[in-house]
């Protein structure tokens, strides 16, 4: 019996070999030096039937412990309507390659065009690309773009209030690409403006990157930082959450030149970290510096509206030794995910997602403080939306594990004696109260430490 | 395929909504309580549409798209094989999709096991020592691999190695990845038989060379017969040899890159390992290394744990896990006995098409090919029917076009890759249509030059799109 | 056959130079615009930027390819042809009537290293 993925029968193979003038399949490799041919056995199991594959993965999945997610830190547990995975399962979308042949790819091209439009409308930017891999790499690409756009400057400033994994990726890219990266410290929960201004005194700063919502969940006021960057002749990049930005001040309103981040917050499953969907958008004047693919509107030979990959000469250009990005395939299907999600939600739905998250997070923070096991982390109360940090009076590092034993992912340790929580529209009051009880029980087990 | 002209924004009516969310059980609290300076002035102009509007709109869009499930997709260097459906079900299991990337290790042992199994199997298939599954795409894997190369030399205090050698037939991403990684690119020529010119290579190799990138079989579908000598030469000068895995498919089950002397490689799970390409991602570009680079893979590494000399971090979390699951399901379905057949079936199919068409299409290098081969346009060029015209006419017949105008070694490159999952009947139909088009080029060239004629849109005006870019609605 | 104009100087990288006193007008040749096809964008330096003979000063993009521009002479950019920003197709219409930049030359002797029409025509074959 043939394998289901291999249609060639013995007779097909015989006839095709005859046509090719070979007497064995091995003869097709007669140009391969014999010491390169692998004659050994592969360390793989015997072929499984579909039924056995199903069993194997069911067993692997059962080794994961399901937790109620009250944590973010770069991956957020938002609700996604049933329509989204349904549309994504259409194989006309999922089994297509990059839309090189526009005539038979109008589905992908139109969807990407809609995605570009939505990202622009959310961020207040003029141009958005077809997507990046994830938030962290979109930040690294933004840095390289800012340095390339400046032509001669080679220093880039990042705020230490960015997510740690974003900082790690940015610093790895900077090290290998040869960019002089400077980290501005955090002061009392927000980027230190004094330090930022000092660093901007150096003449060769190409750009500054700060988060709209930082690693502590704090919404940063970017006005002064944008002004300082611009007066130093540097570009300003905002790392942002597109879900939250449907209610928060946009990158465009702050005056940023580039917006980047992760669209995972637009309902994408947590999926142990991927696939998510990075995005990148900029002001009109930097359009030609924007890496990645772009879809544009035009007309076809009959004058009908049509969409194509455009400004692709830039992809040829990357053959040069000066390339500042090598991105080709991105996360197109996940961009479609976000586009379908945003179509369903609309402005009213996004408002509600944020209101529910805000309300839940503020309720949970209040309840946790009331247990007496936590302190406010900063000297003043900082504004936040769905994510916040607290300072446990003891055992900040242990709490997360103890809550996992009680069925929750919460109180992620951030170092500095802080832990973070996150609430989305998926959590109701009862679940928040269950978490508070689990926290109490964890601290009781640790021997209490209430004020 | 039927033309459908709407954008989702054009369906919008104030007051419509396509979602239902629970009531606020926390009272009147809402984000309007935030300081006004932190709120946006107006809600974003997202579409206001009903659920049926959304379903119908995207279903209509999908009907203007061509995927592997629609028909034969012989796109050279892209390995558009069938995407098994069991993989989709596996990737959608809630036991995987609901896992947060920062959960405590003890709660994600199933995911860790997935990483372990796929890494082990990829090591066995390629002959490498260890893998990172973190890179998100082929080009991302390439960049990661080159970072590993640079990192290796720096760890050994070797700071003078700033050059990377790339053949003139290489994929366009190779030099771009090298440049992004801060290397200088040096090109090595091909011989008339399409293989790397070893004599041209020799003088380039010195103590400034960090390594050389190759794809084997190369972009002409030809096996680099001098690979052993090249590996020796590159290693003798202290460099590392990099394998671009875009063309791995014909070697699976027959030849292992590790045995040919490669030190670093990337794979494309969305090519050789059957995961759907998604219209441009998400893919995955795992990177494998030989023994001498062990301990330097990027963080996080769930399987190998802390990497002693890690080169850094290249992804927010641990890669496109959903893609990794699909590739593992595929390998398990094949098993050790079918993995051995895969490459030779792909190679047989390519040679079969080539032999059946070389009398009407120009075959610049006539020797046994691997998974793909390149024609230099029609044999009869008297009517000036180009490769682009042939490609567009194929669309009329319900086939996807091959890769065109790549590699750059020929003016009319037409690069055909059938893969092992296409039946002989499909190959025969394709051959028949290609022959018909060659005839049409001779008898009614204008009709071919103005193709396609029965697709949802016809040739788009790319000049207008680029001169006056409209990039959003 | 691509058009050539007597009295202009040509570079091997397909730029032309027209000398007006100490100012050099620089554009791309008719042969180059043919090879590029429909030009969609010209990336130009800013006024007062310094350019160096043989070094890149910008790029032209067509639907097919992006190609670097190399300055045939050294000096300071005194003017860029802003008409090309909105209408890059002007180069396709007449490559010699549409200069890209004007440069105040710092070393006019560099002109001697450039090609005359006959020599340039020879390399285009």
Task: List the SSEs and their pairings.
The complex is a heterotrimer of chains A (451), B (473) and C (125).
Chain A: H1 10-20, H2 50-62, E1 68-69, H3 83-88, H4 91-94, H5 106-123, E2 127-128, H6 135-149, E3 155-159, H7 164-177, E4 180-184, E5 186-187, E6 190-191, H8 193-199, E7 205-211, H9 223-231, E8 235-240, H10 251-254, E9 258-262, E10 278-282, E11 294-299, E12 305-310, H11 313-317, H12 332-370, E13 374-375, E14 387-392, H13 396-405, E15 408-409, E16 412-415, E17 418-422, H14 429-445
Parallel strand pairs in A: 1-15, 3-4, 3-7, 7-8, 8-9
Antiparallel strand pairs in A: 2-10, 5-6, 9-10, 11-12, 13-14, 14-17, 16-17
Chain B: H1 51-62, H2 85-91, H3 94-97, H4 109-126, E1 130-132, H5 138-155, E2 163-167, H6 173-180, E3 184-188, H7 198-201, E4 209-214, H8 227-236, E5 240-244, H9 257-260, E6 264-266, E7 287-289, H10 321-357, E8 373-376, H11 387-396, E9 403-404, E10 413-416, H12 424-443, H13 445-449, H14 462-467
Parallel strand pairs in B: 2-3, 2-4, 4-5, 5-6
Antiparallel strand pairs in B: 1-7, 6-7, 8-10, 9-10
Helix pairs in contact in B: 2-10, 4-10, 5-6, 10-12
Chain C: E1 9-10, E2 15-20, E3 23-28, H1 30-36, E4 39-43, E5 50-51, E6 56-62, E7 66-70, E8 75-80, H2 83-86, H3 89-93, E9 101-105, H4 117-123
Antiparallel strand pairs in C: 1-2, 2-3, 3-9, 4-6, 5-8, 6-7, 8-9
Structure description:
The complex is a heterotrimer of chains A (451), B (473) and C (125). With 451 residues, chain A is α/β, with parallel strands linked by helices. Chain A folds into 2 domains: 68-76 and 346-445, Aspartate Aminotransferase, domain 1 (Alpha-Beta Complex); 83-339, Type I PLP-dependent aspartate aminotransferase-like (Major domain) (Aspartate Aminotransferase, domain 2). Chain A has helices spanning 10-20, 50-62, 83-88, 91-94, 106-123, 135-149, 164-177, 193-199, 223-231, 251-254, 313-317, 332-370, 396-405, 429-445; strands at 68-69, 127-128, 155-159, 180-184, 186-187, 190-191, 205-211, 235-240, 258-262, 278-282, 294-299, 305-310, 374-375, 387-392, 408-409, 412-415, 418-422. Chain A has a 7-stranded mixed β-sheet with strand order 2-10-9-8-7-3-4, with helices on both faces. Chain A has a 4-stranded antiparallel β-sheet with strand order 13-14-17-16, with helices on one face. In chain A, strand 16 and strand 17 form a beta hairpin. Chain A starts with 9 loop residues before the first helix and ends in a 6-residue tail after the last helix. In chain B, the strands form 2 sheets. In chain B, strands 1-7-6-5-4-2-3 form a 7-stranded mixed β-sheet, with helices on both faces. In chain B, strands 8-10-9 form a 3-stranded antiparallel β-sheet, covered by helices on one side. The longest helix of chain B has 37 residues, at 321-357. With 125 residues, chain C is an alpha+beta fold. In chain C, 18% of the residues lie in helices and 35% in strands. Chain C has helices at 30-36, 83-86, 89-93, 117-123; strands at residues 9-10, 15-20, 23-28, 39-43, 50-51, 56-62, 66-70, 75-80, 101-105. The radius of gyration of chain C is 13 Å and the shape is globular. Chains A and B meet through helix 1, helix 2, helix 3, helix 4 and helix 5 of A and helix 1, helix 2, helix 3, helix 4 and helix 5 of B.
